[in-house]
Amino acid sequence: MITKNMNNKKNLIWVAVVLIIIILLALYFFVFQKNKEFVVRDKNSFTSQEDYLNYLEEYKMAQGKDVYGGKTPEETLDLFVEALKAGNIDLASKYFILSKQEETAKNLEVIKDRDNFEKFLPILNYRTETHFYDYDNSYEFEFFDNKNISVFNLFFSNNEESKLWKIESL
Fold it and tell me: What residue segments make up the domains of the chain, in order of their start?
């Protein structure tokens, strides 16, 4: 009788240990892996073809998790402008494709530091020409100054994974 109770206790302990391990693994995956931030890499950083293919898969997964952008290029542009007006460069840079976000944040910080937002933001209200390019499903806004001179263009592409429009270049 005593050995039967001891065997039941041992079995119960093993079940508890296994459950704890399963719970810890699930927590690790959902807390750490799910929220792991994607890091853009330089093309010279790949050590092998397998490394590159793994990176492409990670990039695709990161695109699917991307929640920054609009359902139309106009909506993405409006969100970008709102973030700039609020002075939130980090948010504004998230409306760019993943591979350009870090570079864009640095460039926007330079514009902000030089007090050029006062010159930059009004130009975004003068958007007068738009072009859709069917061959690659991209969109372009051409911005003009108050003298109707083309100042710069913003190019947009559709993130196929998240179905949101992202800015490709400034």
Answer: 2-61, 70-169
